[in-house]
Amino acid sequence: MKILVVEDDAAVRKFITTLLKKENYTVFDADNGINALLILKEQKDITLLITDLIMPEMEGFETIIEVKKQYPSINIIAISGGGQVGPENFLVLADALGAHTTLKKPFSGQELIRAIKNL
Fold this sequence. Notes:
By secondary structure, this protein is an alpha/beta fold.
């Protein structure tokens, strides 16, 4: 399985990509939605997108909308730690936009792997 991780926080992005590589997934990463869409154009066989929701340039909400429009077969896991408001509001919106699963930060590696396997 090929997975694209979209996360602006370099430490979180590294945690997720390292974890997924240890689980033998092929992993690509981007720091915002614009770069994610560029990767999706190049890598036609990505089957899962894991995206943060609050990012500069192009937020996860916009990314979810574009991915659902351009690549409807890709599964989406939305992740968020929130901001000024709690992450629950953001995750509910991500679900409404088409995310298949949502995870509230911080989450464990086991929670993420379980979410992937449940897709």
